[in-house]
Amino acid sequence: MNRLAFVIPYFKIDFFEETLKALSTQTNKNFGVYIGNDLSKNDPSSILKKYNHLNITYKSFRNNLGSTDLEGQWKRCIALSKDEEWICILADDDFPKDNFVEEFYKSLPLVDQKKINVIKTAITSIDSKSNVRGKDLTHPEFDTGINTFWRDRNDKTYTSISENIFRRSSYEKHGFRGFPLAWGTPLVAWIDYSEGGYIYGMNNTQMCVRVSEINLSRVDSFKDQKHIGEAMVYEIIFNDYINQFTKSQLLFLIKKYHAILHYYKRENKLTSSIFSLYGKYSGIKGQLFYVLREIKWKFIR
């Protein structure tokens, strides 16, 4: 019985065959593959034929959605899948190591016992030639969504989409938050999905996550949406998860949000002013910091 669905939102053909090849060499073949073509100009039919033994469900959509609503593209690709209990949204340029599925099934007894909804696998960062870019990023065996977010904000880890496996029931309950072009979606989704419980770190295998010129040019092309997404992350944290952090952590986070509003020229969407939040988390000292920071920004360019 397949309990895992690989959902691939397809658009770029550059590394797509490498992704399918990695699925074909999995040591455990108990998974489904679902591919949604986001009206790509590159027809993947010839590649798909080479890997038809994977029993792929493929749909070519009539409109491009990912360029304006990447979450929407992910959702309609997930809708192609069947009733697998677990979902991995696999980017069309990333790929799992050969024992990825095998290790997933090995982890399930423990994951089910602890009622865990999100699994994070170790990350191998690769470049456009699939060369390893550095040391693998591993995760704590058991971590909360809040602490994962905190470590991300402190550059102790980073979050993409492909290295995560999540329960379908959690996705159906919480969905996605509506981030423009999905910047911020995984970071907040894993807090939502974990529901105060643990995220399981699966470090005996890796997801190879690609950093290439194609990825970087996309980021440069959509900076405005990225800035909105970064601000949204903090707005959700302060609106929905404020009680999960200490005062010192909240002061750190409000400083981050304050800087985003300034440098990206965004408006504060929290119900409280930034000045009052500095006072709430650090008293007069915090408010003095705010005033001096504003003066510095005004006169020093």
Q: Catalogue the unreliable spans.
A: none
Secondary-structure element string: EHEHEHEEHEEHEHHEHHHH
Structural class: alpha/beta
**Radius of gyration (Å):** 20 Å
The biggest beta sheet reads: 9 strands, mixed
Helix content: 40-55%
Q: Tell me the distance between the termini.
A: 61 Å
Let me know the number of strands.
9
Integer average pLDDT: 94
The outline comes out as globular
Number of helices, counting only DSSP H or I runs of 4 residues or more? 11
Index terms:
301 residues; alpha/beta; 11 helices
Topology, element by element:
Blueprint: E1 4-10, H1 16-24, E2 32-37, H2 45-50, E3 56-60, H3 70-78, E4 86-89, E5 95-96, H4 100-113, E6 118-126, E7 142-144, H5 145-153, E8 164-167, H6 168-174, H7 185-194, E9 198-210, H8 213-221, H9 223-240, H10 247-263, H11 274-299
Parallel strand pairs: 1-2, 1-4, 2-3, 6-9
Antiparallel strand pairs: 4-8, 5-9, 6-8, 7-9
Helix pairs in contact: 5-7, 6-7, 9-10, 10-11
Structure description:
- This protein is an alpha/beta fold and 301 residues long.
- α5 runs antiparallel to α7, α9 (223-240) runs antiparallel to α10 and α10 (247-263) crosses α11 (274-299).
- The chain is 45% helix and 18% strand.
- Strands 1, 2, 3, 4, 5, 6, 7, 8 and 9 form a 9-stranded mixed β-sheet that branches.
